[in-house]
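Researcher: Last one for today. Full complex below.
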Amino acid sequence: MKNLTPEQIKFIDTYLKNSGVEFLDVRVEMIDHVASAIEENLEEDRARNFYEVFKAYMIKNKKSLLKSANSVKWSVDRKVLLSIRKELYSIPVLLIGGGIMTTLVTIDIAQLEKNLWFQISCAAGIFTAYLIPVVLYIKQKISFLNRLSMYSYLINYLFFLLLSNVEIPADWLEVIYGLLMWANLVILLTAFKMSAYYKKQFARL
Amino acid sequence: MSNSNLFKGSLSTIVLKLLKEEGRMYGYEITQKVKDATKGKFKITEGALYPTLHKLEADGILEVEVEKVDNRLRKYYRLTEKGTTETAKKISELEEYIKTLQEVIFLKPKIG
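Model: Here's the assembly. Have a good evening.
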């Protein structure tokens, strides 16, 4: 069987990208599927060229392909939530989180909260934790990192609403800040781990 | 037959059974294997296959290996340890279901 050339593979890739298949991990699978089908069709009908077979294939299957690409969100969400759950009690999170919690308990956070530099440091920390999955997604365009960014935004926004709109008793402030740090720590570690995993997987592209 | 709801309901079991037999497979290979095995009666569309594979992967039933093949990357799926147990369970459930269905469909009226 004659294999498609790198230029023909690139053509399929660009076509799928322009059709809205944005995530690299999803597109890689679609490219292989379309290329395998075209190679088989070319073998069966040697009179036709790549572009004729490609056009005929897309007329028949584009809707189903895009449906498949769009439905990936739900399974990715599940994967993200399971990864977050797995990371919640990992050794690095327990060690770093434990250190942060001990520090929070020993300091007078109610007093410190009024300090402008503390507020700026907290805001910068939260913003960085939110931004890192976003930056990793922009660099890699992987569905997992896209959905993780969304969860990171959601979690940080909920904490922001809580801290800025609710009068929290001083005793509970340590718990709230501790949970906020813990959540961001888990998101960051998940983001770096999965980014490295996908980088290794798709490095040969 | 390709759009049958009966087929859709058992798609994940068919995929798991194939992976149990073949070890590892990629998406297009699965569609062709099903088409050949059923002499074209069952055709799995991309829109049905990939969401099933991704769901099984998210559930930890399948794991993925990516390899460069013929100028492109290919995602191979294989059963995890949990997946092997789950496959045996699903096949047994499907067999039981078919047996019960046969009993109901081909129910013979009692005489006397």
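The longest helix of chain A spans residues 170-202. Residues 73-202 of chain A form one domain.
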